[in-house]
Specification:
This protein has 266 residues and is of the alpha/beta class. The protein is built from twelve helices and eight strands. An eight-stranded mixed beta sheet has the order 1-2-4-3-5-6-7-8, sandwiched between helices. Strand 3, helix 1 and strand 4 form a beta-alpha-beta unit. Helix 1 crosses helix 12, helix 2 packs across helix 3 and helix 4 packs antiparallel against helix 8.
């Protein structure tokens, strides 16, 4: 396991080496998860690309820090990690809040970003009322109260029926996140709006969504893609909010094709 302190917050990360002439791919995870959600994607890319993944603050083995957070806190954490690792011109692949972190990183530190792969995310997710309600519910009743409804958003009915052991594991992952880290990131999502920033993205961008995503539905992700000049929009069949778990092969195919089409020297 690898750890680094960035701005007073210890982050858990993983660096996997790869060919020096290939771009680094950076994976940022979703709300209520840790970087293990990327496992089935990473094992299909490892050896072909250098890879960085990490637990954002308040999740996994990373510090909670001082919650609530802003998206800038999450962005600064990732920027600090990449600076420490001397990574520039990376492909930032973010899921849900990780996708907002990716957008924020480009807006604040474009030197770190060669391209963006934005998975099941948007320029703005949810409303102030919806996030405030979720924060209040978790603070009063615990994360456990969210497990059943959230799993229905994360995964398709087929996953619930045929992959029950995995469903239990991901339910445990959600329940075991620190309450302050979860609600702190909910506050960051509540306050984040990258509508104008999305219009200014000038690097190649892939926008991906599961066809049965209940958290950031295809129409919402498409609306983000429409804001980003020249972006690609792709729907992954048979996937909910976390296609890196449910359909990793399809996601990897899209990522490989996207990288193959990047302009040389971009």
């Amino acid at each position: 396991m690898q750890f680094i302190e960035i701005g007073g917050v210890t982050l858990h990360y993983q660096l996997i080496g790869g060919p020096a002439d290939k771009p680094v791919i950076v994976f940022a995870n979703s709300l209520g998860t840790d970087f293990r959600i990327w496992r089935d994607v990473i094992i299909r890319l490892a050896g072909d690309f250098p890879i960085v993944t990490y637990d954002k603050r308040g999740h996994g083995l990373s510090d909670v820090g001082a919650a609530p957070y802003s998206l800038d806190d999450h962005v600064d954490d990732l920027a600090g990690l990449l600076d420490h690792l001397k990574v520039k011109n990376a492909i930032i692949c973010g899921l849900s809040v990780g996708g907002l972190i990716a957008q924020g990183l480009y807006a604040k530190r474009p030197d770190l970003v060669r391209a963006l792969a934005l998975c099941d995310t948007a320029h703005k997710i949810g409303t102030a009322d919806s996030w405030n309600t979720r924060i209040a519910t978790v603070e009063s009743k615990g994360i456990e109260i969210l497990v059943e409804p959230v799993m229905k958003l994360w995964f398709t009915p087929a996953f619930h029926k045929d992959r029950k052991d995995e469903l239990t594991g991901y339910s445990n992952m959600l329940m075991r996140q620190p309450v302050a880290g979860y609600t702190g990131t909910c506050a960051a999502l509540r306050d984040a709006d990258y509508t104008q920033a999305a219009k200014a993205i000038a690097v190649p961008t892939l926008c991906v969504v599961g066809d049965q995503d209940g958290s950031t539905p295809p129409d919402l992700v498409r609306s983000m893609a429409d804001l980003i000049p020249g972006s690609r929009f792709k729907i992954i069949p048979g996937a909910g909010h976390i296609p890196c778990v449910e359909q990793p092969e399809a996601l990897v195919d899209l990522i490989r094709g996207f990288i193959a089409d990047l302009p040389s020297g971009d």
